[in-house]
Amino acid sequence: MDLPVPRPDRRTDTLVFDLDGTLVDSLADLGAAINRLLSTEARPPLSLARIRGFIGDGVPKLLARSLSAAGLSPSEDAFEALLARYTADYEARAAELTRPYPGVAELLPALAERGWRLAVCTNKPQAATLHVLKALGLARNIAVVAGGDRYPHRKPDPRHPMSAVAEAASAPARAVMIGDGPQDLAAGEAAGMRRIAALYGYGGLTRENIGEISALNAFTDLPAVLELAMR
Question: How far apart are CA 163 and CA 79, in angstroms?
């Protein structure tokens, strides 16, 4: 891949990426783990199209929405037990079917080589995030990994990306939040960051519902869109 990658400048030097639906297509693994759990509760599997709409707010919300869709209403204690089982199963198998979106494996090192500070800010738990990044060969280019349980706050709370940016030795005003969900855009806006929407992901973002925010139809659009967003 030979795409011109812009250099960071004095005003913009850090890129903060969401993970699921932005850097990687993880739906198949997330869905497989949900359906393995449902099978132990004598419930039929949910379609991946249904599960896709439950992604973005972290594992507890993903599981709660999936259980409700399957007709289950566990008590608080029962839910916590199911959450522990789901988390252990998913984290052990988080990269079996998950793949980077086209262009990710090539562009992340190109961005790092040009001098960009790269961070991942995701509501996925830290352990699963690291597993996926390492298994797919993406971790070496990421300076900061901020999973959903890394700090006391998670997106759409702006302190989540702000903490990641601070750890990258930058500042929100010099950072760009890139994600496929409204949580990403809301957190980035509240943090005072530039934003780029990934329209190809799971979060239901469209040209019509993101206003004037810059957007990617595919990850390979990033160099050109980033250059425009930096102006």
Answer: 30
Q: Report the DSSP beta bridge partners of residue 146.
A: 121
Cross-strand pairs, 196: 178, 214
Q: Could you tell me if 32 and 135 lie in one domain?
A: no
What's the pLDDT tens digit per position in 88-137?
999 999 999 999 999 999 999 999 999 999 999 999 999 999 999 999 99
Residue 192 to residue 177: CA distance in whole angstroms: 10
Say whether 113 sits in a helix, a strand or coil: helix
| Residue 5 is assigned to a structural domain of this protein | no
- Residue 170: predicted pLDDT: 97
Q: What range defines the domain where residue 129 resides?
A: 14-26+98-229
Peptide bond into 156 cis (omega under 30): yes
Q: Where are the alpha helices (DSSP H) in the chain?
A: 27-40, 48-52, 59-69, 76-92, 104-113, 126-135, 159-167, 182-191, 222-229
Q: What is the pLDDT of residues 135-167, one digit of tens each?
A: 999 999 999 999 999 999 999 999 999 999 999
Residues 82, 195 within the same domain:
no
Q: 206 and 117 share a domain? A: yes
- Which of 2, 9, 13, 18 does the annotation list as catalytic? 18
Its pTM surpasses 0.90: yes
Query: Mean pLDDT for the chain?
Result: 96
18 is catalytic: yes
